[in-house]
Automatic annotation (TrEMBL):
Signal peptide start and end residues: none
Protein name (database record): Malto-oligosyltrehalose trehalohydrolase
InterPro entries: GH, GH13_cat_dom, Glyco_hydro_13_N, Ig-like_fold, Ig_E-set, Trehalose_TreZ, Trehalose_TreZ_E-set_sf
Family in the record: Belongs to the glycosyl hydrolase 13 family.
Reactions that this protein is recorded to catalyse: hydrolysis of (1->4)-alpha-D-glucosidic linkage in 4-alpha-D-[(1->4)-alpha-D-glucanosyl]n trehalose to yield trehalose and (1->4)-alpha-D-glucan
NCBIfam families in alphabetical order: trehalose_TreZ
Biochemical pathway: Glycan biosynthesis; trehalose biosynthesis
Gene Ontology CC: cytoplasm
Length: 610
């Protein structure tokens, strides 16, 4: 596959010169048209593999330009760094310089992450990178060690989840400038917080996508819900692969982003001998060596296939971690009782037990929802390679009314869900506002201008919701009110005491030696189920804990084989609960009661382990 990687887009220098490089292999002529002097286009020279270049003098930041293809089409730069007038306007030059002060920052390991997913536009009232900076103190006090930004690439209109981006190299113009994003990363590192960026390499948005005018970036060989798939393995695929690899390296190198979360990698099709994910991983590893910082690649997909995170030497792609939806599905179904849509595959506590043990719930058995056998056991992987959650943008925003768990569950069940996540062996991810029980919904929102596209989008949402049997009118994602409703209220007492409880839970997870073991062979032991109670042991670093979860609506009696000491109970009055029923010290084979919807942690004395 590729051995020489070519930088694309504008490359300005301090002396006022700028080299423009664009890939257009099937064009016969390409010119740079400066908006300030459109009557004087600059012819570009065609080089190997269809890359066109030209160096122009007296180019300053903010100058706008187009590419003219074959003396006809005038289009923005596919690798534009800035689209000040939106997806249909000219591209603009950005000064790449920045005074960094984070030279002591070394990156982050997956096992160290307490992730916090946020949407830049909805996280604060300003909807900007500067707004995020103003909340970094809140996140650091909470115990967050990494924020994950939903996609920030330029999309059409004012508001969007980000998955309709069409300029992967350009920051959405209403979030801030390139300098603002660098300031956010720099500030986050000063607070000890890593920055993960969600990127979309499986498709482009339906509006403002001019890539096909330049080259065969897409293929009809594979079909996606969003349209044609990205051409990673057909004619002219080398330039496509280079385009996305250069994009990833730009974020990780120039912007010092600590890792990328790659959206829906199951929709990235590649039959090449060297899969694009493996090729990307190899280039990121080279970057790590050069900059001496850890750079993470996180896959998001629902195929229950460990290949993406398995070592290259074992036939994998070598990525660092993946999202694990099935932990969420199993816990959500168990604690809410929902059984429609994909939740029909989940419900019994045995499913949650499987996820705690195997990360995946389905490892080859028959799936009722998929109507086929599904999944594979994730052998040779660690728990620190799986990112779990009780809420995220998909699981909230793809509900009919965007309702959060705080509007579905009471405070005791909310605390139990949070404890189940934090005490699990997986890397935890919180969704913005979850820590204090945000009540505002997080709805699906867009701002397209194509009326036909808008109707197709709404019809698709209606079909999607039909399988869940949810009642009510599907909100119109185009309405400004829908976006405004989705912004955090920052009423941090929405659920009294919940924020304080989350802080305690996160600190407890960090401080407990038994919770720092992520080895699959011994971190989780002795999982047992009794009625609505699931209990298991966490072992590591010569320490051991018993985690006991009651996911039912009634008090239950339980007994352990080992003596142990209670460390905390979510139903304790200290956490605004009704009061713990469990004794401070538990004797072997002595029954005791635990409250409904509660989570308890007991410490097994070291001598028992010896």
């Amino acid at each position: 596959m590729y051995t020489t990687y070519i930088s694309i887009g504008p490359a300005p220098t301090k002396n006022g010169q700028c080299t423009f490089t664009v890939w257009a292999p099937e064009c016969n002529a390409v010119q740079v048209v400066l908006a300030a002097s459109p009557q004087l286009p600059w012819p570009m020279e065609k080089g190997e593999m269809g890359y066109w270049t030209v160096t122009i003098g007296q180019v300053t930041p903010g100058m706008q330009y187009w590419y003219k293809l074959d003396n006809e089409l005038q289009r923005p730069d596919p690798a534009s760094r800035w689209q000040p007038e939106g997806v249909h306007g000219p591209s603009a030059i950005v000064d790449p310089s920045f005074d960094w002060t984070d030279n002591d920052w070394q990156g982050i390991e997956p096992a160290e992450m307490i992730l916090y997913e946020l949407h830049t536009g909805a996280f604060t009232q300003s909807g900007t990178f500067q707004g995020i900076i103003s909340k970094l103190d809140h996140l650091q006090i909470l115990g967050i060690t990494a924020i994950e930004l939903m996609p920030i690439a330029q999309f059409p209109g004012h508001h969007n989840w980000g998955y309709d981006g069409v300029f992967p190299f350009a920051i959405h113009n209403e979030y801030g400038t390139a300098a603002d994003l660098k300031q956010l990363v720099n500030a986050a590192h000063q607070w000890g917080i890593a920055v993960i960026l969600d990127v979309v390499y499986n498709h482009a948005g339906p509006e403002g996508n001019y890539l096909p005018n330049f080259a065969p970036y897409f293929t009809d060989k594979y079909k996606l819900f969003w349209g044609g798939a990205v051409n990673f393995d057909g004619a002219w695929c080398d330039g496509v692969r280079n385009y996305f690899i250069q994009n990833a390296l730009m974020w990780l190198d120039e912007f010092r982003i600590d890792g990328l979360r790659l959206d829906a990698v199951h929709a990235i099709f590649d039959s090449s001998a060297l899969h694009i994910m493996e090729e990307l991983t190899s280039q990121v590893r080279l970057l790590e060596q050069r900059v001496q910082r850890r750079k993470l690649l996180i896959a998001e997909f629902d195929l229950n296939n460990p290949r993406y995170i398995s070592p290259v030497a074992q036939g994998g792609y070598g990525m660092d971690a993946q999202w694990v939806d099935e932990f969420h599905h199993a816990l959500h179904a168990a604690i809410t009782g929902e059984q429609t849509g994909y939740y029909e595959d989940f419900g019994p506590l045995e499913d949650l037990a499987r996820s705690l043990q195997n990360s995946y719930v389905y490892t080859g058995q028959f799936s009722k929802h998929r109507k086929r056998c599904f999944g594979k056991m994730p052998v040779n992987t660690g728990y620190n390679q799986f990112i779990a959650f009780v809420q995220n943008h998909d699981q909230v925003g793809n509900r009919l009314l965007g309702d959060r768990l705080s509007t579905v569950l009471d405070a005791e069940a909310l605390k139990t869900a949070a404890a189940t996540l934090m005490l699990s062996p997986h890397v935890p991810l919180l969704f913005m506002g979850e820590e204090y029980g945000e009540k505002n919904p997080f709805l699906y929102f867009t701002s397209h201008t194509d009326k036909v596209l808008i109707e197709q989008l709404c019809e698709g949402r209606r079909r999607e919701f039909a399988v869940f049997n949810w009642e009510g009118k599907v909100p119109n994602p185009q309405e400004e009110a829908i976006f405004n409703q989705s912004k955090l209220s920052w009423q941090i007492d929405e659920v009294p005491g919940l924020l304080r409880f989350y802080k305690y839970l996160i600190a407890f997870r960090k401080e407990q030696p038994a919770l720092q073991n992520f080895r699959r062979d011994d971190a989780v032991r002795n999982i047992r189920i009794q009625k609505n109670i699931l209990h298991f042991e966490r072992h590591g670093n010569a320490a051991a804990l018993i985690i006991c979860l009651n996911l039912g609506k009634e008090p239950e009696s339980i007994q352990f084989e080992k003596a142990c000491t209670k460390l905390f109970d979510t139903s304790d009055v200290a956490w605004n609960g009704p009061g713990s029923l469990a004794p401070a010290v538990v004797q072997p084979e002595q029954p005791f009661l635990i409250n409904p919807f509660s989570a308890l942690v007991f410490e097994i004395p070291t001598r028992v382990e010896e």
